[in-house]
From TrEMBL:
Lineage, broadest ranks: Bacteria, Bacillati, Actinomycetota, Actinomycetes, Kitasatosporales
Species annotation: Streptomyces qinzhouensis
CDD domains: R_hydratase_like (cd03441)
A Pfam cross-reference name: FAS1_DH_region
Record-linked Gene3D superfamilies: Hotdog Thioesterase
Highest taxon of source: Bacteria
InterPro entries: FAS1-like_DH_region (IPR039569), HadA-like (IPR016709), HotDog_dom_sf (IPR029069)
Name of this protein: MaoC family dehydratase
Residue ranges annotated for the FAS1-like dehydratase domain, each copy included: 6-137
């Protein structure tokens, strides 16, 4: 099913979530962050942070808190068995720490195909704010494989 460029600009409903200390510690340990600023509040404050800082890429985990994260693919009739993770980028504008209440606003920023339509790409841009101020921009690419395309 070819994806239409008219999808560009499609927005998801915004949602809010917070960075919790327990999840930050678990993520830091699971990803091998050995710097105590990621697990010890005193070390974080001594290093100049307000609280435990969000480790790199953790905002992707918070983005997954979206209560209806699969709605967009369902609305397009895309079978999740045909999707691949095509990439992600993070641009930080301000530090994020434990306790921060964050708002995630996502829209489709590009749609294109390769290999004669065998692979279609959906690029989403998520703007993350705290009290209305930008803290990060996340860019994620989903690849949709056409199961009927010759390999």
């Amino acid at each position: 099913m070819p994806l239409s460029p008219s999808l560009i600009g499609t927005r998801y409903p915004e949602f809010r979530t917070s960075a919790e200390r327990g999840r930050l510690r678990f993520f830091a340990q699971a990803t091998g962050q050995h710097d105590p600023v990621y697990t010890d509040v005193e070390a974080a404050v001594a290093a100049g942070h307000r609280d435990l800082p969000v480790p790199p890429t953790f905002l992707f985990c918070l983005e997954m808190d979206n209560p209806d994260r699969g709605k967009f693919l369902r609305d397009l009739g895309i079978d999740v068995r045909t999707i691949l993770h095509g990439g992600q980028e993070f641009a930080y504008h301000s530090p994020v720490c434990a306790g921060d209440e964050l708002t995630f606003a996502t829209e489709v920023s590009d749609v294109y195909s390769k290999k004669g339509g065998a692979l279609e790409f959906i690029v989403r841009t998520t703007r993350v704010t705290r009290a209305g101020e930008p803290v990060a921009t996340l860019t994620g690419t989903t690849v949709v494989r056409d199961p009927k395309a010759a390999r």
